[in-house]
Write a structure and sequence with these properties.
About 30% of the residues lie in helices and about 30% in strands. It is built from ten helices and 20 strands. Strand 19 (about 350-355) and strand 20 (about 360-365) form a beta hairpin. The chain is globular. The two termini are about 25 Å apart.
Length: about 400
């Protein structure tokens, strides 16, 4: 399944920074990680750190699935607001899910520092109301976050206009968030892993998987056999083929990025990430302080042909959305693309084992903040595979539906 179309900016900017071999011989290992995108790379990082022998297999060239199309906003906010999520999964689980995502941002920062990866920056996040009727729920959301220790402020209409230079009836300003280049970070993680015993093979499709109580056996399209004690599925939306019940709805999402401005500049206060209460929501971020990215205009995924045809139309709409918000900033699109993402009923990912597939585990970071979910998944699965109890696993298990 194609997971993106058009010209993702980070793929064009960074190209193919490293090469990885095809698998051409049979082998055995402790853990096979199926999928070499950001989720698989983070899982490999955590597992190799605790001494597990791991092999990463990807059907594509590394990073050319959803990862290169990621807009790379790191937010602890889940697609379902906290004040609603507590009514779906319970108060404690909802708060814990939000806190885990906040901690994940800090952990990504620490990993980036360890790897000397510089394309990471902490940023604030502004969540604004598109209509006055949304202000009461924003205030309720702000209150429950404050009660649980999140560093947030509620901004009124005049403050938004004075500090961010656009009009909105209210907003929550979160002081924890970040930008990262997810595509290049994936390569950095895998390169670090290679120096610590990790094996990475791309362009290696798997055509058969056999699950038993003793382990797993995979057969590649060129008939290599890979045996392991455990298997981690980190293939995102493609993993739904292994789950015999509906767990996710697929959507097409669109993004466009401007030509670069002639000089480095800050377009609004604190260079914050900006998103809104619309459904689907619009989101805005700067890129390198001389480009602007706008994304959104999501719709249910129907087929590849339709998604591809809509890129030009969606680009014009997103540019118009931005210009209606910031009337004094020119927006001239240069690169535009579309991708596939999945939404679950409660906005949470699926992490852990699936009863019908012994010795297989899933790291499925569905939703708008899949990268932070990927950190959560890597930590939970590392504990489970090492035979440790993880008290957070039940929040994201398949048994919750």
């Amino acid at each position: 399944m194609n997971l993106h179309w058009g010209y993702p900016f980070w793929l064009i900017k960074d190209g193919l920074p490293y090469g990885y071999p095809k698998l051409q011989q049979s082998l055995s290992t402790d853990v096979i990680i199926l999928g070499g995108g950001i989720s698989g790379a983070l899982t490999a990082y955590y597992l190799t750190k605790v001494g597990m022998d791991c092999v990463v297999l990807d059907a594509r060239t590394i990073g050319l699935g959803s990862t290169c199309a990621s807009t790379s906003l790191l937010q602890y906010e889940i697609d379902t607001p906290l004040y609603l999520l507590k009514n779906i999964v319970g108060y404690q689980s909802a708060v814990r899910a939000y806190k885990l995502c906040g901690e994940a941002i800090e952990k990504i920062a620490a990993i980036a520092k360890e790897l000397n990866f510089t394309d990471f920056n902490f940023k604030k996040s502004l969540y604004y109301a598109v209509d006055k009727k949304h202000v009461p729920f924003l205030k309720e959301e702000c209150t429950i976050r404050k009660e649980n220790g999140f560093d947030v402020d509620f901004l009124d209409e005049q403050t938004i206009k004075d500090e961010f230079h656009f009009s909105a009836p209210g907003a929550i300003l979160s002081h924890l968030g970040a930008h990262i280049n997810a595509y290049l970070f994936t390569h950095a993680l895998l390169q670090h892993g290679l120096q610590n015993g990790l094996q990475v093979y791309d362009r290696t499709p798997v055509k058969e998987i056999e699950n038993t109580n003793k382990g797993v056996t995979l057969k590649t399209d060129n008939n290599c056999i890979v045996k392991a004690k455990k298997l981690v599925h980190a293939t995102g939306y493609e993993a739904i083929h292994f789950i015999k019940k509906k767990i996710v709805t697929l959507y097409s999402t669109y993004a466009t990025i401007t030509e670069q401005f002639n000089k480095q500049m800050y377009f609004w206060k604190d260079d914050a990430m900006i998103w809104n209460t619309a459904k689907p929501y619009l989101y805005v971020r700067s890129v390198g302080n001389n480009r602007i990215l706008v994304g959104g205009r999501d719709e249910k995924f129907i087929n590849i042909r339709r998604q591809d045809k809509l890129i030009n139309k969606k680009t014009k709409s997103l540019a118009k959305d931005f210009c209606m918000l910031f009337q004094n900033i020119p927006f001239i699109p240069e690169f535009s693309w579309a991708g596939v993402f999945g939404a679950t009923k409660d906005g949470l990912p699926f992490i852990g084992s699936y009863k019908k597939l012994p010795n297989s585990f899933f790291a499925l970071g569905y939703g708008g903040n899949g990268i932070t979910f990927s950190v959560v998944a890597a930590e939970i699965l590392t504990d489970i595979i090492k035979g440790k109890q993880n008290s957070d696993a039940k929040i994201f298990s398949f048994e919750r539906i």
